[in-house]
Amino acid sequence: MEHYTAPVTKLIEELAKLPGIGRKSAQRLAFHILDMQDADVVELAKAIVNAKKYTKHCQRCGNMTEGELCSICSSLKRDMSTICVVEDVRDIAAMERTREYKGVYHVLHGTISPLDGIGPDDINIKSLITRLNTEVKEVILATNPTIEGEATAVYISRIIKPM
User: Is 122 helix (H, G, I), strand (E, B) or coil?
Assistant: First the structure.
């Protein structure tokens, strides 16, 4: 059995809550943090607090931003007539790495998953429909190839097809 001080145990427990971090990885991270210089620990803590405090969702597409609109939605160089629908903000980063897509995005922040109690009203579909009332010519459904992603794409395509 491990015997750590209460603050170290709490740090390990909190780190273990992060996705992909098990107890062993959380222990490694905790001990790494404890070995860091005090100033570096303060900077890490500030970075976490500031990221949480100042990052919000773009009012138009749902991407991460500090202001009202993200850098993609506010860019004059993007094709506003093409919207790529993605599940998560991380999907935007993947698409942008290709440097090929010149349109804008719409982030659903999840997928429809009846088994998990997540329906169409629980993800960002309504604002997508609102956006389609503008000069949109093309919608690309780029959900992940999972059962939930496919179901979400089918649901959205049925809604927007008449438009």
Answer: helix
Report CA dihedral (140, 145, 148, 151) to the nearest 10 degrees. 50
CA 25 to chain centre: 23
Q: 106 forms bridges with which residues in the sheet?
A: 85
3-state secondary structure 42-77: HHHHHHHHHHHHHCEECCCCCCEECCCCCCCCCCCC
Structure tokens belonging to residue 129: 């429909």
Bridge-based pairing of strands 79-86 and 138-141 is parallel
Using DSSP, state whether 92 is helix, strand or coil: helix
107-155 confidence digits (pLDDT tens): 999 999 888 889 888 899 999 988 887 788 899 999 999 999 999 999 9
Yes or no: say if 107 and 124 are a contact pair by the CB < 8 Å rule. Answer: yes
Report, in this order, helix, strand and coil percent for the chain, each rounded to 5: 45, 15, 40
pLDDT reading at 67 higher than 60: yes
Place of tokens 């009012």: 59
For residue 79, the SS3 value is: strand
Sign of CA dihedral 96, 97, 102, 108: negative
**Could you tell me if 137 and 82 are in contact, meaning their C-beta atoms sit under 8 angstroms apart?**
yes
